[in-house]
């Protein structure tokens, strides 16, 4: 497999530096620095040219990275003199505060395009990679080594964060400034960090985005495995409200203020994360606890735990006098002892109604506060629930810092900052749950035939109309099984059932947006600034339910009942399906409506369609969507040689059980051929990986014997084949994996699954497909040879073949 396409920039093996002045404040890895060669292959004698690499300078035909720092008047000549080195990446540093005109920027982009190299700059401050001793930013102080990657679209923000981080003892794995005018893709950098061994968490400061689908896909892939913190200005802007809703779906944590940044960085580096949002408090002061509880009430992400009676009674036996506030706070009114505090923590940890613990300690000169904190820090790495500590004591600040550094765990100094920190953990947990929701929006069934509706919308557009009449809207709703009764009877219905409104509009950046809110009949108080009541499709039942809960649309939830909640949930999912399938929809307003035992009763509905249609959507998969929906177009029937009819479709998260049964049912030989190990079943992590798919960068297809389509021969749906591909590090190709059930081999299933995958990879735009096959797996090698794969022995292991298919020739 090739190196990542940004390795030449961020982990170069060879380097060419070309400047018109001496640059001293840089550092290089030893493996590069030891190969320094001064060369003079550029005609301008005033330039300093140094090459770091293993090749003889007289035969250099390619270099990983060129670093350029020259004045504007000789920049063009210098760049084109460097073309002969065929650089894979280039950094153009800011030169004495030079201002780069649009012409200069365009020149640099053209040169990079001609050389087919990644370009950082012009007007770049360079990069810092302390983890590999690489510092190519001479005008910035060196940062300490750490595990946080900082990516910013603002030079000033980079400067401030570097300054603050030095005082807060925070180190970085990468510091990178990407200006608005640079040709370097932010999505590519995010993709690189997925694979970067040295990075454990990421801080992004954003001002704008390149290709939105690529950006969202890369961010979702990164957030699945590493915590991501996003800081973006402008949260009072209307467009920014949608941005917040989108960030929630990517699984990242968005912070509002710069002052919150380092608290978020510290808490997300904790050894354990929340697996829920119910928080308990333990304190030696009522005032501290009340301040923290205020923060919990203010945070939509935090929930108060309900301490069990057993926990409360057991803690009373430990301390002379305690108070219990709001069923979630334990207040100790006596001197603290570290052994008793640890016993109390163990009681909290064993309480199933508690997901996280906030410990607030006020100065108490009769107690050894530092020993208590150290005892808590000592148990944190060994437990499964997070304990966040607040010690309000400046008198021991120096000693406290030393203790925290030793354990690499932060202690907060105000109840507000500690409560905010644990709210970050809660938001991360909540957003991660949303991130994992990728299954089909509606329980799987044959999608409705919507071709007639598409023709109807095209006809309306061609006739110059943009608003649908009630009959046309009703036909569109019926195509998606939406049953809405239009009547004025809603005015006499119980207020606990509504009124409710659903608004849909097309955001210029992120596409369709769905907003759920309580109805304001005159629309003067319509709230379009609350990101909590907004969501972007695709929706499934879980996402729709979460939107309902965040929106607080019902006056009294206890009077609603599960049936009415399910009805609203289904409407949201159906509207989501409609927006996915019909990209011509520009806006939709449903309501005011009420949900009754007889269905949905609405007073009003309006649908507006795009003025010019969407001809540019032909042969492009869902380009109007920020998140790639379930690719229902890949669902197809498959007829095997023995007459069996199976369904081939993209995998869904609810397939985890039948996938596990499929793997368990394979013979030992088949499992070994697929996984090159003696494993008998998939681990939970592997099950999650294979069933929760980002369709922008990977695909998994399953072959299913449908019990209902095979004369009840099977008691349940049965998986008989599985094929998967995942984007390689270089971004150009995919690595495939295929396994067919033992009883279903040699009847054409493997051949059909591979052809389907090749077609899908080609359609997405990948250049090649590769994989690794054991030399003893003759049936697989024969299949791939017949399909046109190139088969070569792996030079590092003669028992394995590397197989390769050129998709550009397919």
Gap between N and C termini, in Å?
A: 21 Å
Helix content: 25-40%
CATH class of the largest domain: Alpha Beta
Give the mean pLDDT: 85
Number of helices: 24
Radius of gyration, in angstroms, nearest whole number? 30 Å
The poorly predicted ranges are: 521-526, 615-619
Please name the fourth-level CATH homologous superfamily of the largest domain.
Answer: Gcn5-related N-acetyltransferase (GNAT)
| CATH fold title of the largest domain | Aminopeptidase
Shape: globular
* Strand line-up in the sheet with most strands: 27-28-29-30-31-32-34-33
Verbal overview:
The strands form five sheets. Strands 27-28-29-30-31-32-34-33 form an eight-stranded mixed β-sheet, with helices on both faces. A seven-stranded mixed β-sheet has the order 8-7-10-9-11-12-13, with helices on both faces. Residues 521-526 and 615-619 have low confidence and may be disordered. Helix 8 (238-250) links the parallel strand 12 and strand 13. Helix content is 33%, strand content 24%. With 810 residues, the chain is an alpha/beta fold. It holds the Pfam family Succ_CoA_lig.
Keywords for this entry:
single chain, 810 residues, alpha/beta, Rossmann fold, 5 domains
Brief summary of the model shown:
By secondary structure, this protein is α/β, with parallel strands linked by helices. The chain is built from 24 helices and 34 strands.
Write the SSE topology.
Blueprint: H1 7-10, E1 15-19, H2 30-33, E2 36-38, E3 48-52, E4 63-69, H3 75-82, E5 87-93, H4 102-115, E6 118-124, E7 127-129, E8 134-135, E9 145-152, H5 155-167, E10 172-177, H6 186-195, E11 201-206, H7 212-225, E12 228-232, H8 238-250, E13 253-255, H9 261-268, E14 278-283, H10 286-298, E15 303-304, H11 309-316, E16 322-325, E17 329-332, H12 338-349, E18 356-361, H13 369-379, E19 387-391, H14 397-407, H15 415-435, H16 451-462, H17 470-479, E20 484-486, E21 500-507, E22 511-518, E23 534-535, H18 541-551, H19 562-581, E24 585-596, E25 599-602, E26 605-609, E27 636-639, E28 645-650, H20 656-665, H21 668-675, H22 684-691, E29 698-705, E30 718-727, E31 733-740, H23 749-764, E32 768-774, H24 778-787, E33 790-794, E34 797-806
Parallel strand pairs: 1-4, 4-5, 5-6, 9-10, 9-11, 11-12, 12-13, 14-15, 14-17, 14-18, 18-19, 20-25, 31-32
Antiparallel strand pairs: 1-3, 2-3, 7-8, 7-10, 16-17, 21-22, 21-24, 22-23, 24-25, 24-26, 27-28, 28-29, 29-30, 30-31, 32-34, 33-34
């Amino acid at each position: 497999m090739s190196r990542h396409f940004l390795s030449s920039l961020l982990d170069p093996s060879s380097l060419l530096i070309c400047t018109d002045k001496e640059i001293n404040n840089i550092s290089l890895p030893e493996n590069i620095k030891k190969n320094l060669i001064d060369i003079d292959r550029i005609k301008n004698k005033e330039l300093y040219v140094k090459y770091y690499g293993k090749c003889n300078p007289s035969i250099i035909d390619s270099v990983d990275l060129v670093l350029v720092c020259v004045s504007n008047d000789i920049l063009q000549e210098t760049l084109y003199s460097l073309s002969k080195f065929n650089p894979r990446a280039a950094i153009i540093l800011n030169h004495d505060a030079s201002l780069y005109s649009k012409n200069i920027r365009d020149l640099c982009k053209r040169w990079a395009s001609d050389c087919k190299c990644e370009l950082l700059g012009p007007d770049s401050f360079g990069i810092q990679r302390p983890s590999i001793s690489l510092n190519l930013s001479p005008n910035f102080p060196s940062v300490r080594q750490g595990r946080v990657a900082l990516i910013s679209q603002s030079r000033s923000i980079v400067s401030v964060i570097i300054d603050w981080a030095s005082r807060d003892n925070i180190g970085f794995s990468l510091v990178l400034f990407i200006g608005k005018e640079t040709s370097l893709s932010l999505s590519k950098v995010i993709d690189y960090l997925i694979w970067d061994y040295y990075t454990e968490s990421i801080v992004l400061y954003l001002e704008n985005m390149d290709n939105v689908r690529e950006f969202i896909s890369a961010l979702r892939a990164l957030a699945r495995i590493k915590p991501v913190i996003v800081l973006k200005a402008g949260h009072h802007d209307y467009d920014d409200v949608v941005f917040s809703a989108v960030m929630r779906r990517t699984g990242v944590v968005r912070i509002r203020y710069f002052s919150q940044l380092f608290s978020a960085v510290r808490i997300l580096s904790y050894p354990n994360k929340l697996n829920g949002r119910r928080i308990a408090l333990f304190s030696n002061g009522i005032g501290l606890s009340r301040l923290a509880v205020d923060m919990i009430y203010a945070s939509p992400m935090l929930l108060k735990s309900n301490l069990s009676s057993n926990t409360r009674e057991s803690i009373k036996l430990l301390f002379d006098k305690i108070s219990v506030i709001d069923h979630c706070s334990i207040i100790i009114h006596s001197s603290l002892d570290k052994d008793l505090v640890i016993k109390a923590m163990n009681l909290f940890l064993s309480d199933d109604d508690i997901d996280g613990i906030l410990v607030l300690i006020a100065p108490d000169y009769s107690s050894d506060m530092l020993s208590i904190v150290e005892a808590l820090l000592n148990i944190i790495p060994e437990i499964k629930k997070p304990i966040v500590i607040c010690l309000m004591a400046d008198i021991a600040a120096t000693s406290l810092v030393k203790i925290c550094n030793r354990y690499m765990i932060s202690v907060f100094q105000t109840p507000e900052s500690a409560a905010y920190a644990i709210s970050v953990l809660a938001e991360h947990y909540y957003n991660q749950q949303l991130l994992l929701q990728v299954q089909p929006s509606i329980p799987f069934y044959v999608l409705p035939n919507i071709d007639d509706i598409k023709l109807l919308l095209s006809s309306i557009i061609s006739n110059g109309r943009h608003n649908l009449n009630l009959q046309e809207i009703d036909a569109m709703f019926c195509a998606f099984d939406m049953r809405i009764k239009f009547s004025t009877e809603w005015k006499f219905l119980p207020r606990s059932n509504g009124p409710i409104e659903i608004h849909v509009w097309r955001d210029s950046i992120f596409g369709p947006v769905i907003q759920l809110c309580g109805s304001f009949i005159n629309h003067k108080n319509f709230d379009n600034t609350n990101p909590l009541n907004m969501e972007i499709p695709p929706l499934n039942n879980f996402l729709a339910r979460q939107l309902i809960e965040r929106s607080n649309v019902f006056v009294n939830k206890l009077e609603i009942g599960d049936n009415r909640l399910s009805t609203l949930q289904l409407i949201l999912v159906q509207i989501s399906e409609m927006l996915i399938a019909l990209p011509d929809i520009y806006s939709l307003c449903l309501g005011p409506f009420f949900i009754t035992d007889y269905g949905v009763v609405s007073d009003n509905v309006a649908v507006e369609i795009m003025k010019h249609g969407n001809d540019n959507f032909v042969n492009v998969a869902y380009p109007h969507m920020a998140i790639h929906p379930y690719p229902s177009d890949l669902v197809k029937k498959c007829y095997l040689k023995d007459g069996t009819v199976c369904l081939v479709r993209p995998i869904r998260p609810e397939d985890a059980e039948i996938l596990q049964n499929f793997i368990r049912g394979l013979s030992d030989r088949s499992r070994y051929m697929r996984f090159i190990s003696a494993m008998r079943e998939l681990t939970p992590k592997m099950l999650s990986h294979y069933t929760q798919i980002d369709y922008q960068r990977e695909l998994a297809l399953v072959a299913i014997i449908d019990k209902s389509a095979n004369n009840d021969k099977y008691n349940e749906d049965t998986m008989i084949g599985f094929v998967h591909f995942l984007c390689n590090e270089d971004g150009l190709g995919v690595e495939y994996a295929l396994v067919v059930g033992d009883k279903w081999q040699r009847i054409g299933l493997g051949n059909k699954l591979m052809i389907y995958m090749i077609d899908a990879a080609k359609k997405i735009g990948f250049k090649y497909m590769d994989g690794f096959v054991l030399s003893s797996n003759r049936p697989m090698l024969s299949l791939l040879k017949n399909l046109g794969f190139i088969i070569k022995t792996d030079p590092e292991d003669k028992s394995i073949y590397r197989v390769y298919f050129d998709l550009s020739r397919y």
